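Narrative of activities, Objective 1.

The group set out to show that a structural description can be obtained from nothing but a protein's sequence at a throughput compatible with the screening campaign. Below is one input-output pair from the validation batch, recorded exactly as produced.
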Amino acid sequence: MSPRIDCLTMLTISGRSTAHAKGPRHSFAVVPIFACAVGALAASTAAGDLINIKADGSGDYPTIQAAINAAATGDEIVLEGGQGAYTGPGNKEIDFSGKAITVRSADPSSSAVVAATVIDCQFDGRAFIFENSETREAILDGLTIINGRRQDVFGRGGGILIANSSPTIRRCVIAHCDVNWLGAGVRATSSDALLEDCVIENNLCDGGAGGVSWDGGNPELRGCVIRNNRASSAGGGTFSSLDSATMINCLVEGNVATNYVGGVGFAGDNFPGAQIAIWNCSIVNNHATMQAGGLSFYYHQDTTIRNCVVWGNTAPLAPQIRVSDNPHPTNPVTVRVEFSDVQGGAADVLVGVRNTLIWTASNIDADPEFTPGPAGCFYLSQTAAGQLGDSPCVDEGAGTAAAYGLDASTTRSDEVTDSGATDMGYHYAVTGQPLLMGDHDRNGHIELADFAAMQNCVTGDGVTDVSPCCRIFDFEPDADVDLADYADFAALLIP
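Output recorded for this entry:
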């Protein structure tokens, strides 16, 4: 395994108005101002061994833990998928033991292989533990982790627990885990870990953070989808108290908190001067019964929200964004919002006494016009991709797609990648698959499960308030889901 450097280049944007066929535009100089720390201080210069593991125990070692115990620096432990789930002792509460090794599926780039390579904790323990100073050279790649549970005193980290370690977790699915305190999906303390291209969904926390909980460190979340998680306190999606953090190109959608913030919450109470960067994220359709629906920021921090879409979130006090409404004379919060589409605009942001909202003229308050695509509900409508109109978020971000590493990703339902001026919001990975209208669960088939989902999406003729995830049933398309769409769907369901 060759040495690897994980660097984040923070960017400043300067711009000037220029003529553009669609109206006023901006051109930008993208200037690097600092880089993150080296991800690994040292690594083996020679490729390690491949160790093959099978769920039935007939591989090179009987369990994942046994393989890790035998592994040396640079080794790759490959889990065969499709032969049943990995379960039982040795295949849960798996400890990397401080080793710079990789545990992966046979093909982490294949969503089908990832879905078939399952660690099932059977609601008795979590899947992985990193607590021995692991670096980013300790890698999980392309695994599905389900049914983790920690309901003991201060139960935390139902799927993965990270303590004083900084692993890389890439292209993993963490789902259906539960805890009674913090971080049903992932819980980390004092960690600079990288979570990249992961899906964290349908997890349940009786305390704070249904999806991801962080306490201390400088983590990076890149290309992650955090959706449909629940918490009884703060942070249906995430809740963290950090030195600094970066979220780039994440989709936080459909999370619910009984209390403080449905989507994303950051607190800097233990870390004065915390620096938070949230770039090219879509924070949509989250809900909290108190405080903030989309994003909430507490105590001692400076946050920049750039190129984001914050839309459709709900809560009694601050549906979209809350900038701490508690007047702390020594713990101020500053949030800068730029080149973003925020429902309700600045007027709907709750800003507490002694806290500061910096709202630039580059922001908009306009329906982002989401449209379905091959991998989800939140692509941007574009006439070039076959939709009826262009989203106001197209080409309206700061800088170029290449500057943010998004030029291989897409906001278009036909999967043409972003180029030139970056689009606002989350960019999907290219799947190589066409959009199949009516395929609500994106499994490549029109079936009864899709028909059941359609029942909750029918609006009737002329009712145009169709939720983004229901627009996959608007066959005509005419912005409603009615009897004509039923007929089109039935023609696909019944050949």
